[in-house]
Inverse folding.
């Protein structure tokens, strides 16, 4: 009954097998054959033959490197208040960018809107030497509320951004879950919807620790790679990152793992909805559930061994975040529902 | 009829006289006698015998150096959305601090509240390794809306801040105007109300280009001075800054100049209030007026040679910002009112 | 015949086995049991019960985080011109420290001396507000020339540094090779010789990608951990780093692997010395050899499939760097020597 | 007998008169007429009609802003060990550039050579992802040893730099002294010799605190201006900087003041050379003298009230730095020589 986070799961067996099978010697720092192979594979999966790829070992690194490449130190990056880059990365984006400013956009259900972005942009005069320069938009899909941006929602946001010259980033820590939930292609959910740089997550979905920065505008790639090296994120035994990502994208493993996580969340959500006095806070569209329930219920679950985060508490009720992963089983779900029933 | 900004005014004659009278040689970088003298004078004026002082030539420098000393690179600084440090300094605070995050607080009339601060602080868990660390509060007085924080309002905010370990900064670009408006002492409006570091403005109020960072906790002084040097803000002919500040604080010149600016604004506000279809947006407590009026009126004033900023426009109306300075005269005010009448 | 770098080797089987055996779920970000265990183990190995540990995935990250914690942004860090932090990390230390300055120290055979350090320090007046502040000394052992600092050499350097208030860092990318070569204990080669923070390498010696920052002064640990998070170097599935390091330090594996690498280098060096017109540039004390030989010889080796770096070239001769690793075999060595003979 | 530094002198009367005559109101932040006028004047003086200008109040600001614009954060800037940017600006260039590395070049008499630069560049492989990227060359004229680079020497250095794609900066804190000493035009000593950005000093030569960054490649101007604002170096009452610079460049005042300083230094040097056991360390080509003499002589001068810096001391001798300024008089020089005689 481990619902704290998908990043607490282990490594998928298919991935571990690839790691164990790696050759005994190879050129370091990405000069190896596996890295070349995985770059080709990502281009194929994203139908983006000119895309460039940089593998790193954390989502914070992927996001901060991407945004530092999209915004000058005197730029503004627009995002949601609950975006990982704003709330959970300890000023990494400010650090990597050399001092860019993050400005938050209102919205609901984990999403923001073109109108909210337009209003925020309108507050910054076009040629004010004193103002921070609007530079980038950062979205997250699946959102931090577990909801899903459809490609057309992303496109509407990136179009508004682009009218003012902003570049667009997508934090795809749960990109595979978003694809599995929507049935969209990787291209539809990224560059076709106006995304310039994607943080393609792997760690939360069965890898040991690999995220791919996918750069759809290849003119940005060299700077991003220099920043990766300077940030200590160019690993010498790089092929072990590449091997994980190769396994991930082979035979649709990534979508299978994400589908399992999403499916378990759907089952859990369906069960929760049948319980009296229990309320889903957001639509459950991927592998993450926010549920509002009476305090004693949460207490009972915790006592029974369930692990999860509490988001808010008050008036005898509590909001829990429950996250399913590729390794969550039907038994986990049933056991959790049974403790609440 | 120059109401664009108090920083468009000139240098007060008393100040220019001091500059012209400076000695022909002196030790550079603040090793001169005038600098020592002005430090003593500031301690006396603020009833703060252990205060330390660093003179710089811009408010942006004063604010950014102060906040960089109060917040680590991984810290959060809380301020208003319209604070100069957030809206008008092109990421200077992010730059000087090495990447601190600015988080804005809601409020009205240019002010925020202890409740708003408390709510913002409550969103950051006490020991979350992923979150930016709450580090400092930055207030502005006179506010950017031309309103006045009373010392007890400042104290209520700094107490809330201090409960969570934050240090407190006051952007006093118009500190003299705030004193003149409130009748408070300099001490009451700063350290007695919980302020750790003050940006004491001079430039908007008759100096050529001097702001004093007044550091009430002397343990912060050395780091701030190193940061000043590293930021290119330690002037070699430092005594010319000190001479300006000495003249400013001698015989109450600063309060006299601010009183003149405030008085002209009061007169202008009183005149505006008598006009039909003209509305003051905020209480006028210092030298700055926000007035909402019909478009054609603003147009008429501009045509007549008046200079001012437009803040917002819509529905046939426009909001103007009118700022009086030490050199605004009754004739300027009367002429402006006459064009509108 | 792969002698390009020890970081081109693979993962030792004992380490891969530990990875494969990891539990299916665990608390992320180092809150797991393996991380606690490996911290205890490092304290034991270093006879330093209060030491703190931060695991990261690259040597650049380990070095830059360590030095950023030891030097303020306005500090000077002294190191060798060929130090990894100066020559091979693309300004990572300048980046992580927020702008510290690296000043290089002369010396020979990959080493510097207390006299060279003292001379460099003497050039910076004690209380000069304009000068960068001497802050840290960074040494490397094994050195970049493959030579070995004995503990008493390190102690003489750190004593000179400490007299001026500097903190001391050791880049131990090849620390295990240094221990294996010297027969010293880990404590003798680190904190007993005056080292405050050690970058303890694992990647070049059989791990997949783990370096441990070992912090002997625990007052530095919290800041270093915040910097790690902010730098994107706190991995969520942290236990996979810990599991590698646990295997590394269990039953002396790290010293066994390093001993194998050193032994192969010794055998290779001995063979090279018997060849006419071939000259070892530095004493071979660990797993790295610099050898000066006629161009055609190098060409012959390369043609035969040997892989290595050329360091310098001129007058018909070339200097090669040959690095042995834990997976270098006697057959590799013999084959290489045979091509030259 | 004040020979400590030219920055300890006062403001030239012609300059003070311009300040006092400034208009009572003007648009802030450089939107005034004087600023436009002084930009035109600089273009004329430098025969560079497309040059852009940014005025600041310190040499450290001018240098750091210039170099930050010329080098990315992952770049290397080559300079002399005694360059102001390396030795006397407390890591300002590292700070403003976001972490660029300064690498020092050997040489003698305050100068470096194309050969030294070429050797330093040769140590950095062309396409090494791990190395800091060679980005800029920073020269100083007059040099820190008081010697003079002739335009053809500068051109030889900038040509070597340009072959590797470096941009070139000249720290001209004493540019007027260099012009007065050489009889060259401003163009010959700057862009015609390959300089991209010049820090044109005024403060050491009769201004209160103004340096002009002269940008010969106008494509760099916008970024430099944004950096100036972000660094707190865009002054609101900007016209008081412009007024100083206008006076400086009017009727050859700058060259007259520099000529006076150089002349006094020449007279002082001539006098020193006649004294037994007194030795000039470098050729005296501008307004700065380095003289090696017996300890007791220096002591006698100090006792008689002379003010100067000691650079080195040992074996009963001491090296003094004696700097003449625009306000040094023949009487000062004679009095000093008399105390030594």
């Amino acid at each position: 009954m481990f619902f704290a986070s998908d990043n607490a799961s282990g490594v998928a067996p298919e991935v571990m097998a690839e790691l164990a099978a790696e050759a005994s010697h190879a050129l370091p720092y990405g000069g190896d054959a596996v890295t070349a192979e995985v770059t080709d594979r990502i281009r194929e999966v994203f139908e983006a033959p000119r895309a460039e790829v940089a593998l790193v070992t954390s989502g914070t690194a992927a996001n901060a490197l991407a945004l530092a490449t999209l915004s000058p130190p005197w730029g503004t990056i627009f995002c949601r208040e609950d975006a990982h880059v704003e709330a959970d990365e300890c000023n990494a984006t400010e650090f990597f960018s050399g001092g860019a400013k993050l400005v938050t956009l209102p919205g609901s259900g984990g999403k923001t809107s073109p109108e909210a972005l337009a209003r925020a942009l309108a507050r910054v005069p076009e040629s004010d030497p004193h103002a921070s320069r609007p530079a980038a938009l950062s979205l997250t899909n699946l959102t931090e509320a577990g909801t899903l941006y459809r490609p057309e929602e992303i496109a509407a946001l990136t179009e508004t951004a682009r009218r003012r010259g902003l570049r667009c980033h997508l934090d795809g820590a749960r990109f595979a879950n978003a694809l599995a939930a929507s049935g969209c292609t990787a291209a539809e959910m990224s560059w076709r919807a106006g995304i310039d740089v994607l943080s393609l997550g792997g760690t939360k979905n069965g890898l040991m620790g690999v995220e791919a920065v996918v750069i759809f505008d290849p003119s940005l790639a060299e700077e991003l790679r220099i920043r990766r090296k300077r940030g200590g994120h160019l690993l010498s035994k790089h092929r072990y990152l590449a091997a994980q990502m190769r396994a991930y994208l082979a035979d649709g493993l990534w979508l299978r793992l994400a589908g399992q996580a999403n499916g378990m969340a759907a089952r859990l959500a369906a069960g929760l909805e049948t319980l009296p006095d229990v309320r889903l806070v957001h639509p459950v569209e991927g592998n993450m559930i926010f549920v509002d329930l009476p305090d004693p219920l949460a207490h009972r679950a915790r006592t029974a061994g369930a692990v999860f985060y509490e988001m808010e508490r008050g008036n005898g009720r509590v909001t829990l975040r429950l996250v399913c992963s590729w390794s969550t089983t039907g038994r986990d779900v049933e056991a959790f529902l049974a403790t609440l029933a």
Notes: The first strand of chain C starts at residue 52 and ends at 56. The CA atoms of residues 73 and 276 of chain C lie 51 Å apart.
